[in-house]
Prior knowledge:
- The relative contact order is 0.13.
- The longest helix is centred in the last third of the chain and has 15 residues.
- The chain has an 8-stranded mixed β-sheet, with helices on both faces. The chain has a 5-stranded antiparallel β-sheet with strand order 9-13-10-11-12, sandwiched between helices.
- The protein has 2 domains: 192 residues, 3-Layer(aba) Sandwich (Rossmann fold); 115 residues, 2-Layer Sandwich (Hypothetical Protein Yjia, Chain: A,domain 2).
- 30% of the residues lie in helices and 28% in strands.
- It starts with 7 loop residues before the first strand and ends with a helix.
- The chain has 10 helices and 13 strands.
- Helix 9 packs antiparallel against helix 10.
- By secondary structure, the protein is of the alpha/beta class.
- Zinc chaperone that directly transfers zinc cofactor to target proteins, thereby activating them. Zinc is transferred from the CXCC motif in the GTPase domain to the zinc binding site in target proteins in a process requiring GTP hydrolysis.
- This is GTPase.
- It comes from Pseudomonas parafulva.
Amino acid sequence: MFCVQTPIPVTVLTGFLGAGKTTLLKHMLKAEHGLRLAVIENEFSEAGIDSQLLGDEPVQVMTLANGCVCCSIHGDLTRALFLLLERLDAGEIAFDRLVIECTGLADPAPVAQTFFIDEELRERYILDGIITLVDAAHADVHLTQTIAQAQVGFADRLLLSKTDLVEPATVQALRERLARINGRAAMHVVEQGRIDLGALLDVRGFNLNPDLGANLKPTLRPVLKPATPDRIATLVLRTDKALDIDRLSDFMNGLLETHGTQLLRYKGVLNIAGEDRKLVFQGVLKLYGFDWDAEWAEAEPRESVMVFIADDLPEATIRAGFEALTAE
């Protein structure tokens, strides 16, 4: 009898050097949470989870006392992912969730794309969310680096660490700056690596779902633009006019062809002319997917919402294309 395997949810953990990724991972691996977690730690992390794991072998795997699995890699992520699957299928290890720690200087995009490009990995794993730690005490310095801004831009959740070392006004200013960079990511404070794992797991950040508008409403208040804008920024567009699906397709294809490498994350929940169902889509760079969702409720406003988070955001181009979509 053929058995369909449930894909393993994957959480990608990013953050600049010293933001507290390893401290968080230690907490996740040692806590008695009852979850069967596997963690992939790479060799460039600022402090290993367990230095005894780091040796000459390109991939090492160890089952810890609480049942969690720690995998240390010295090379290709894809190889480590397949190795874990081989040992899982052979009954040598057991886990039902995976956390991947990126290096402090790493771009999360290639890690995310790994789970879309390889067909077997796409069937066995499902990308649940990208979590980015932000060091509140050193954010001003870190965010001068484009890669640190990109880590924020890719995030589904932002974790603020070391908030106890700075004034509340500094934390609030940081929150506002992060909301300008990424208006769709919820923010949480993490203290010495301790946080409710419910804030990190089952994020469903890469699921096609229609909850975009609700998630964004709290962050759409007018804010003053900073004197020196960040390279990464969020653009949110809304309309209550029904969209023509052919014109929408032309708009998105043209945008991705010209600016696809700039679009870190994008998502839409759309009202399509002549269709009672919601159309939802989202993507990372040039990789995207879309599907029909539930019907609009009778009393529900049929509002289309599109969100773009981009490096050197081509705002004028996107706005012009969106206005053409909504024109009579």
